[in-house]
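Hi there,

I know you've been waiting on this one. I reran it after we fixed the sequence typo, so this is the corrected version. Both the input and the resulting structure follow.
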Amino acid sequence: MMRKILTWAFLILVALPVAYVVLLKWVDPPVTVTQLGSLFGGEGLKRDYVDVSGMSPNIRLAVMASEDQLFPDHGGFDMKSIQKVMDYNKRKPGRVRGASTISQQTAKNVFLWQGRSWVRKGFEVWFTFLIEAIWGKARILEVYLNVIEMGRGVYGVEAAARHHFGKSARQLTRREAAMLAACLPNPKVYTIRPMSRAVGRRYPWVLRQMSNLEGDPDVKRLLR
């Protein structure tokens, strides 16, 4: 009996997740829990997956500049940022900050659900480790840009580019890419059209960070 329990536990917690991660190295993720919540919650669901060749280098640079400037170099976790956030949250427990990397955000959005429970965070660590080991940085960035929310009910850069600017993701300018990246911390509130004050303040900063970051050789490799 115990052997059967251990076998099932291994399949559920290890073998099946690994097999699914391997499959998604080449196959686009199906609908996610977050997207289903948006659909059935009345926000609608706009999404249209494209491969990396269908995305402007501007949007790839913009999300790294905005969300995770060490993305090309870390192993899935930015330990210095995590420590800073832990210290901040101890000092101000009423204002909880996060320190999720692009890899962690991808793991959460593809495989898990929204929330701050320790259980979900534990699964997030596991899936982040898996996608870093199996997918690599280029695939993580590609999937991230296809599943991340960029407006109420709008998921992925292609749907966002068409919804906000009436063009494909391949045609996004630096300014438009910076605006999309600026909405990511809270895309339901940080609106682009009409432009919220938060996006208006944040996207010029994203543009400056893009200029600072684009000369980095590791970043350049992800923009090809």
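Quick highlight: The longest helix spans residues 2-23.

Best,
R. S.
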